[in-house]
Amino acid sequence: MTRSLWRLVFLISLGGAFELYDIFLSGYIVPGLVSSGMFPNSDAAGFFVFWGFAGMFVGCLGFGPVADRLGRRSIFISALAWYSVASAVMAFQRSSGQANAWRFLAGIGAGLEQVAIDAFLAELVPVKARGKAFAFCQFVQFCAVPVVALLGWLLVPRQPLGFAGWGG
Q1: What is the pLDDT of residues 63-114, one digit of tens each?
Q2: 17 domain-assigned
Q3: How confident is the model at residue 119 (pLDDT cuts 50, 70, 90)?
Q4: Which of 118, 140, 152, 154 would staple 168 via disulfide (CB 3.0–4.6 Å)?
Q5: ∠ at Cα 99 (90, 17), nearest 5°?
Q6: Residue 167 lies in a domain
Q7: How many structural domains are present in the chain?
Q8: Residues 6+ apart with CB under 8 A from 128
Q9: 8 A C-beta contact, residue 166 and residue 29
Q10: How many CB atoms lie within 10 A of CB 52?
């Protein structure tokens, strides 16, 4: 394991932190979205969470084999861009139906990203260092959890740029 290989593992792991950030984001922004009236009740808020996981499921199972054909690196970068664009568009929606649709699309990118990360690391890292590399990857990815909690605590009660709940 060279320094440049560890740097690459770190960058891949940092990209994967977006998925965990996204998963835990729901718990922090949904109360803000319910209080703003975007989601009229807890059932509607539950569908928001559902559509994110449904998208991840489709991304993993439906598009995972694409990474086998087109290559892990290109799929990882494409999935990260897909997730980022869909999340940005989702942040500007004014109805629960539109937010759920974009949440589903963002979930596809996040699910595909995770499949690509795991396979990419297994191909990239020598066998003797894979345990350390995967542990490091998980550490970096889970660092997103306290970040989303802090941002949710700081920003969800407010409406940054006039958008309720999206500070987290």
Answers
A1: 888 888 888 888 888 999 999 999 999 888 888 899 999 999 999 999 998 8
A2: yes
A3: confident
A4: 152
A5: 50
A6: no
A7: 1
A8: none
A9: yes
A10: 23
pLDDT in tens, 52-75: 999 999 999 988 888 888 888 888
CB 107 within 8 A of CB 54: yes
SS (H, E, C) 89-108: HHHCCCCHHHHHHHHHHHHH
Using CA atoms, how far apart are residues 88 and 60, in angstroms rounded to an integer? 21
Q: Which pTM value belongs to this model?
A: 0.83
Length of the chain, in residues: 168
Domain extent, residue 14, equals 3-162
Could you tell me if residue 168 is inside a domain? no
Residue 155's CATH number: 1.20.1250.20
Return d(Cα 70, Cα 73) in angstroms, integer. Answer: 9
Q: Rounded distance, CA 93 to CA 101, Å? A: 10
